[in-house]
């Protein structure tokens, strides 16, 4: 239970006692954080590998906790999934991602917004209905939205996932397979997923310029994507060597600190204002 009566969360505080009370505290903390508007979205540019221009932005959530400061998603998304709170956070994320994207488009910028969905979210049958309502009320065309899902998430319940993902596809929403190559999945399912894009996980990109096996893996993913008519995004590009190499291999889009870190919305708009590419 809370000891100080304030908004202290104490997620992993051993004094808090058993796991169930930690979970309960966390659930309350999320409700409070939503009510107090403590979540923020940062946006990371996704750029065209040919000319370096920004073609999209991935929404990445952060928790601005008054006491702990900026909490990264790795520290609360897994717990939010385990406690059933990811639905509320995910709804908040989608709402704000759509509103921001609609604003960029109104201001004349031509790009899409990419939003991460966890398995728990797309296990819900009425997800397509709710996302459709959000896009309608934001006045945002579904073609401007790409949802990112991991193979592992899809594999938790393949038939059900395919049903929901196909319903989203039917709305005109784009889909990318996130962290490709790290999950367990069969290539047969890749063929059945309505995904236009494959995101090559940053673990393969990190040493692509020095490790010949990583290079071979990236080449193989690009060849596979091409053969299946899908686009590729390389994640985690941190230097010019990686950029040049991935460009030469024929990766379509890139993302990474070297191209642009995740930034608050006003900083992203500043980048869009001078979106000349490289
Ligand atoms: P992800 O979807 O794979 O997102 C990419 C992560 O890599 C982000 O971490 C991003 O900041 C980081 N990154 C980008 N470029 C580089 C680079 O050049 N080098 C390195 N080392 N890292 C880079 P972040 O923002 O901490 O997010 C971590 C994960 O949390 C995400 O991985 C995603 O799985 C999850 N996540 C973030 N926002 C959401 C959300 O709104 N909903 C859900 N369900 N999950 C989210
Ligand atoms: Ca992602
Ligand atoms: Ca990823
Ligand atoms: Ca990841």
From TrEMBL:
<protein>
    <recommendedName>
        <fullName>cyclic-guanylate-specific phosphodiesterase</fullName>
    </recommendedName>
</protein>
<feature type="domain" description="EAL">
    <location>
        <begin position="23"/>
        <end position="276"/>
    </location>
</feature>
